[in-house]
Design a protein that fits this description.
The complex is a heterodimer of chains A (379) and B (653). Chain A has 379 residues and is α/β, with parallel strands linked by helices. Chain A is 45% helix and 8% strand. Chain A is globular and about 70 Å long. The mean pLDDT of chain A is 94. The model of chain B has no long low-confidence stretch (mean pLDDT 96). The longest helix of chain B is centred in the N-terminal third of the chain and has 19 residues. Chain B is α/β, with parallel strands linked by helices and 653 residues long. A 5-stranded parallel beta sheet of chain B has the order 10-7-6-18-29, covered by helices on one side. Chain B contains 18 helices and 34 strands. In chain B, helix 12 runs parallel beside helix 13. The chains are: A alpha/beta (379), B alpha/beta (653). At the A-B interface, helix 3 of A face helix 13, strand 23 and strand 26 of B.
């Protein structure tokens, strides 16, 4: 059998047409693969994925699910290639017909049928709130956009609650979306299902305009980045960490309870940091907590390491030894911190999972900023 | 009793890392007649030079020894230094402890001992050094430029602009060179003709330039400031003084020759101008293809020429031209790719070489700028451009031809523009090191040219794949994915090596130049004297020195003009005094010196039966003195006594 291959330019063109034309700029220096957090632990090779795409060679399918869209390579690429666009496009071209890896089938299926990725019943979306918190309506100032994950994932429900509690104490005029809210679509867009993304986007934009929401608070950086960069409508979006930092500065909420020398380290979520450029607000919040000492890990801010949950990674099961979140927990432990704080539901889910499988629950706790902040208010 | 100063240079760490420099100075202080010895980090720098001059005054020195780099590098520098301190410049001795010691010795003890021996020898010789007085000769103010490509044109125009008379010698019937064959130039995509033809015209119009087309350099005599060059005017069979450039002759001519201009893609007439914008606009007859010269009848051109300019009796003529300096800008040849049978050039009609494609792009070319296959009508739908054909290849030319990456990118752009086909670049490394070059590369990458990293291994028209039938199949490894790739295309373009002119060696011999190991003209120093040669007064510019693109060739043309000017701008020039002289009373007339001299300096005077040495040609190498059986030749500054004394000093170690 011949092993010779021939460029398949129609395929290459299809990828370009799907929005990945940026790969043409790539001159194959390998900065991306050298930067990629997966390189040391898996066979995923982003440079090779670009190369195969440039010429339409076989093998794209074997590589295309490896990326967690952390954007580290994009920020370092000397040619300014929008590498994530390429990943999205190859997934769209190759998996557009439904040829998804099994774990992602359930994810996409749930999104299609229920508008959220967690097979949750839509009417139960706000069950976590137990009717304690107001719904958003015309005339209110802030729409607190709850991510599907904080609504349905039991661990993250705590984050939804903490956030709502803080908002209540802040005295701001705010409200939750109704149960017609759906996933922002960030992950499914990265998985390549653009039609579904459009559907979700239109649903949510409809809610914004029907309720007259002009200021939207997101708890998930994925919603934040998507609303800001992909929805493109006329409203203001901020991440809750930014709002919280402002509330502290303006004295609307004041943390009082001393944590007694609690060592906390902070993990920059990729979608809050590299995707949205927010590095300082979460650190300002942590620094304002009495008795909390912020100890930094080696890889932080612009250089932060991905938890592995982006780009659909949250729904993909990985073998031990191939999990970025495990490495991140090790790095957090090495700082001597007993709390690993972060500000993203996906990161929380990934890191919690690692703490559990690594049997490190008695050494370190994973907490959202809001949870830590709420603890310092009570007492 | 001499008063000698010894100055040891560290040359940063070049010398100091292997030679213990302070120990060397200490050692020198112990030598008889040495009154001062010092070491310093950079003796050639201003503080280093002042150190020497201060010591000359303070210690009343009458001899100076500098232990540093090769005299080729800084002998002139240090001569000036001591001259400015009041010493005759020939009372200097350079000891080379860098190239001949620290750079070639690993062991510190060995290197230091060797340096001591060299300094000891230099001290022995320095005691015997004599002040010498330089002679001055008249300088001819004119310059000759050989080669009418862009480098030569540039040089000629710059010189003419300063008011100097320039003879521009070109072997073909027109100036313009390779650049006139191009349609566009990288990276700006300037129209080649738009930037070149005005310069060609400026040459024609300049009252300071005497344009000698269809001419060859036949013989070179003389020396810097006073060259005497014999030029052969090849017979054109057209009297250019009478010709009014109506070109009626070229229309009527039935003879056909291969168009050099169009790289053989089409035929031209036997009486022709190479291309419509040629300078001069006057034809020549190609004797090989002229019906009259072949068959003895025709003379159609003569019949239509109202000026009676056709002259079948014309013969080659010769003239002597005297100039003070010469610039060689003789350009390059493109490698013949036929011997590289794996690429099929000459056998597979779809395979083209770079200059052929340049002609296809050119609006004045055989297809009026349309890119078509050799059938003259089919537009290729896919084209592969193969880099490094014969370059970076030990089997052919080891060097990088330096311009191919960029012109291949230009090709890709023009091919995309003119054919809308798929274009592949097959490269080893992309080299784009020039202003705006990387940006041009980036632009092409974004124009969706397919880049395959790997050198094409073979082009074939044989395939088992029915989809590829009728195509040329290019075989290559994509080294980025480690896959063997076959690419079916309609057209293959080879980017072959640029090589020295076929007759570069003959030209080098005429002007007494050396060539590098590839046959390009050798510069005096790759960094500090890139346009000079080992022959004083002969300069080089452009691709005759190494492969070069247009910006570099133009820069060199300008630079060489400035270099030539440094000679011809002066009425008189100083000659090196360290030359050989013949004691005619002792000369036995054997002419050994005439035979051994590489510079042609000794001439035999048949009237007096003795050799005489032309000081302007003599480099003071001493070959003649060493081979003179009668010891009648004295090499000043390296007399037998001086050399023997130095040997004595060396042998104390």
């Amino acid at each position: 059998m011949s092993t010779a291959v021939t460029p398949y330019l129609e395929m290459s063109q299809a990828i370009a047409d799907a929005g990945g034309e940026a790969f043409r700029k790539c001159y194959q220096c390998g900065t991306c693969t050298g930067t990629c957090p997966w390189s040391p632990i898996t066979h995923f090779n982003i440079r090779k994925l670009m190369r195969l795409s440039q010429l339409g060679f076989d093998g794209i399918e074997d590589l295309m699910w490896g990326c967690s869209t952390c954007k580290f390579c994009v920020d370092r690429c000397p040619r300014g290639v929008e590498i994530i666009d390429l990943v999205r496009s190859v997934r769209s071209v190759y998996a557009g017909g439904g040829l998804l890896p099994p774990p992602l089938r359930a994810f996409v299926g749930s999104l299609t049928a229920r508008g959220n990725p967690w097979t949750g019943d839509a009417p139960k979306r706000n069950d976590w709130a137990q009717d304690k918190y107001p719904l958003f309506a015309e005339g209110k100032e802030y729409l607190y956009w709850t991510c599907c994950t904080v609504c349905y994932d039991p661990r993250n429900v705590l984050v939804a609650k903490a956030t709502a509690e803080i908002l209540e104490k802040s005295g701001l005029s705010w409200g939750l979306p109704g149960t017609d809210a759906q996933c922002c679509g960030e992950s499914v867009r990265k998985v390549g299902d653009l039609d579904l993304f459009e559907k979700l986007k239109n649903n949510n934009l409809g809610i914004f305009s029907a309720t007259g929401a002009k200021k939207i608070i997101t708890i998930s950086p994925h919603c934040l980045a998507t609303f800001k960069q992909e929805y493109g409508e006329d409203y203001e979006v901020i991440h809750f960490s930014e709002l919280l930092a402002d509330l502290i500065k303006s004295g609307k909420v004041t943390p009082t309870k001393d944590a007694g020398g609690l060592k906390v380290t902070y993990h920059d979520p990729c979608y809050l940091g590299r995707h949205s450029g927010i590095y300082d607000a979460p650190r300002e919040v942590l620094s304002a907590l009495p008795g909390v000492e912020l100890v930094e890990m080696d890889r932080i801010r612009e250089q932060s390491m991905c938890c592995g949950g982006g780009g659909g990674g949250l729904w993909v099961e990985r073998a031990k030894g191939e999990r970025l979140s495990d490495l991140r927990i090790e790095e957090a432990l090495s700082t001597g911190a007993t709390v690993l704080a972060t500000a993203c539901p996906y990161c929380i889910a990934m890191l919690e999972d690692s703490v559990r499988t690594m049997n490190a629950e008695d050494k370190i706790k994973v907490k959202d900023l809001t949870e830590l902040f709420l603890e310092s208010l009570e007492g | 009793m001499s008063r000698i100063g010894v100055f040891v240079c560290h040359c940063g760490l070049n010398i100091a890392k292997t030679v213990r420099v302070s120990e060397l100075a200490e050692f020198a202080r112990t030598l008889p007649d040495v009154v001062v010895a010092e070491d310093y980090k950079f003796m050639c720098s201003t503080p280093g030079q002042e150190l020497i001059q201060n010591d000359i005054r303070k210690h009343n020195l009458d001899r100076v020894i500098v232990a540093a780099c090769s005299p080729l590098m800084h002998e002139r520098t240090f001569r000036k230094v001591i001259e400015n301190a009041g010493l005759n410049q020939y009372l200097l001795s350079i000891v080379n402890v860098r190239e001949q010691d620290s750079w070639v010795t690993e062991d510190e003890d060995v290197a230091t001992t060797k340096a001591k021996a060299l300094i000891n020898g230099a001290v022995f010789r320095a005691r015997l050094l004599q002040p010498l007085v330089s002679r001055f000769i008249d300088v001819n103010p004119d310059v000759m430029v050989v080669g009418g490509g862009i480098a030569g044109i540039q040089a000629a125009l710059e010189l003419a602009d300063t008011g100097k008379k320039v003879y521009l010698v070109e072997r073909s019937p027109t100036i313009g060179g390779h650049m006139a064959q191009f349609d566009k130039t990288f990276p700006t995509l300037d129209c080649s003709a738009c930037i070149l033809t005005p310069k060609m015209d400026a040459v024609l119009q300049s009252s300071n330039i005497e344009l000698l087309t269809y001419c060859e350099v036949e013989e070179v005599k003389g020396f810097v400031g006073n060259f005497d060059i014999k030029i052969r005017q090849k017979a054109r069979y057209v009297d250019h003084d009478k010709c009014n450039a109506c070109l009626a002759c070229t229309e009527k001519c039935p003879g056909r020759g291969v168009s050099e201009w169009d790289e053989g893609l089409v035929k031209r007439k036997a009486i022709y101008i190479p291309f419509p914008q040629a300078v001069p606009q006057k034809p020549v007859i190609d004797r090989e293809n002229c019906t009259f010269f072949k068959k003895g009848k025709c003379r159609l051109c003569e019949k239509v020429c109202e000026q009676e300019a056709i002259d079948f009796e014309q013969k080659d003529t010769f003239r002597e031209v005297k100039v003070g300096a010469v610039i060689l800008a003789t350009g390059y040849d493109l490698m013949d790719t036929k011997p590289l049978i794996q690429y099929g050039y000459g056998k597979l009609p779809g395979v083209h070489h770079a200059l052929e494609l340049e002609r296809l792009f050119n609006s004045a070319g055989p297809t009026s700028g349309k890119v078509v296959m050799r059938d003259g009508k089919t537009e290729p739908q896919s084209i592969a451009i193969l880099h490094c054909i014969g370059s970076r290849d030990k089997n052919n030319h080891e060097y990088c031809s330096r311009v191919c990456c960029m012109y291949s990118l230009k090709f890709a752009h023009l091919l995309k523009e003119k054919t809308h086909g798929d274009v592949y670049q097959l490269y080893i490394d992309m080299r784009a090191p020039g202003k705006g070059y990387e940006e041009f590369y980036n632009r092409l990458v974004e124009e969706d040219v397919k880049f395959i990293r790997g050198k094409a291994a073979r082009v074939t028209d044989k395939t088992d794949n029915p989809d590829h039938a009728g195509k040329l199949i290019v075989e290559v490894e994509d080294t980025l994915t480690s896959q063997f790739v076959t690419i079916p295309v309609d057209m293959v373009v080879l980017s072959p090596a640029m090589k020295p002119r076929q007759d570069a060696k003959d030209m080098a011999r005429l002007f007494n130049l050396s060539t590098d190991k590839y046959g390009f003209f050798m510069e005096r120093h790759p960094k500090l004297a890139p346009l000079s040669t080992m022959t004083d007064g002969v300069f080089i510019a452009g691709a005759c020195q190494s492969p070069k693109d247009i910006p570099d060739s133009v820069s060199q043309g300008t630079g060489a003009a400035a270099e030539a000017l440094t000679i011809v701008v002066k009425d008189k020039m100083e000659l090196e005094a360290a030359t050989a002289i013949v004691n005619s009373a002792a000369c036995c007339g054997c002419q050994n010196c005439v035979r051994v001299c590489p510079y042609g300096a000794p001439m035999f005077n048949y009237e007096k039966n003795v050799s005489e040495i032309n000081e302007a040609l003599c480099k003071g190498c001493g070959l003649c003195a060493a081979s003179c059986p009668a010891s009648a030749i004295i090499t000043r500054h390296f007399t037998n006594d001086q050399v023997m004394a130095e040997m004595e000093g060396l042998m104390e170690f």
